[in-house]
Amino acid sequence: MKRFFTLGCILALTIVFNQAAVAEKVLRLTLQLPATHHLGQNVQSFADEVNKNTNGEIKVEVYPSAQLYKDKEVPQAVASGAVEMGVAALTRFVGTIPAVDLFYVPFLFDDEEAVKKAVAKGSPVRQPIDEAVLKTGARILWWQAYGGAVFLSDDLELRTPADLEGKKVRVFSKTLGALVEAAGGAPTSISGSEQFLAYQRGTVDVGITGVTAVQKRKLYQVMNTLTATKSMVDIEFVVLINEKVWQNLSEEHKQVINTAAARVEKELREKMSQLEADAFDFVQDKMNVVNLTDAEMAKWQELAEPVVEEYIKNAGPLGRQLVEAARKL
Questions:
Q1: Fewer CB within 10 A of the terminal residue: the chain, N end or C end?
Q2: Residue 314 contacts by C-beta under 8 Å, 6 or more apart in sequence?
Q3: How many domains does the chain have?
Q4: Would you say residue 7 lies in a domain?
Q5: Reported pTM
């Protein structure tokens, strides 16, 4: 009797453990930024909600600071299924979808409200981009607001395009590279996670990045001057999931994920202005902050005019469609 009881217990425990193994699906999410950055906090909030509301059946594991993949590697890694989820700058799709560089067309969006309209789910700007990315094998779950771009330099006050002449400049998109070239500079593509060392080693003379990254990546330790560029470009990141992984999820789990994604997207977009303001406050006593005059801004805007046409030429019909939609906003 004791022997049968023992066998029964073993069988019961085996069934329980097997069910647990089957029930829990791990979704690894690769992030190039630190966990303390607002994008890191954003995806962790998403992960916590999904983990809780699926009763542990899905476990989203966040790997920050490019532990798994660098930013430029994320689209292919997610599309191929090498990793289930990932966060990447939208521009990382430019190799297959040149039109995604729309948000790096200088001065295309006049203010934050125009950006909000453009990135709203289902908008005539966002929807075509979401659909184009889906064709690569990766689905966009939500867009992450990153903020505007700033120039970083060391002992150099960048005020007009002439100040970029002959300088090596860190860029993160082909369209920004075109702007730098128009000013006589030499654009160099450097991943976000590699910025600190690039500036420290003098690989480039100037950097273009988001002001929140200056604080979280401690870039103020290797660059001492920041030039605020107002509405020059808007930086957008996207959170991706492999399409095959997505299709294998139950409808209930998809609903939980979509609900969490919608919440964290809305929350981040609404507090972006304050995050940028806080970041500027943080660097005030750590860097020389240069604010451009209207006359100086006009020179950058004049420089940017042919860049729009260059973008349309590179991006084709979809690029022209997106520019027209953006201008209507």
A1: N
A2: 98, 101, 174, 175
A3: 1
A4: no
A5: 0.83
* Token pair listed for 12: 């019961």
Task: Tell whether 160 is covered by a domain.
Answer: yes
Residue type, 12: A
CATH number, position 136: 3.40.190.170
Helix, strand or coil for residue 253?
Answer: helix
Let me know if residue 11 belongs to a domain: no
Q: Is residue 246 part of a domain?
A: yes
Q: The tokens 């903020």 sit on which residue?
A: 147
Cα angle 125, 128, 129 (rounded to 5 degrees) comes to 85
Q: For the segment 50-79, what is each residue's pLDDT rounded down to a tens digit? A: 999 999 999 999 999 999 999 889 999 999
pLDDT in tens, 154-213: 999 999 999 999 999 999 888 899 999 999 999 999 988 899 999 999 999 999 998 888
Structural domain of 140: 23-328
| Mean of all residue pLDDT scores within the chain | 90
User: Pairing relation of β-strands 85-89 and 234-242?
Assistant: antiparallel
Structure tokens belonging to residue 13: 């425990």
pLDDT of 323 higher than 70: yes
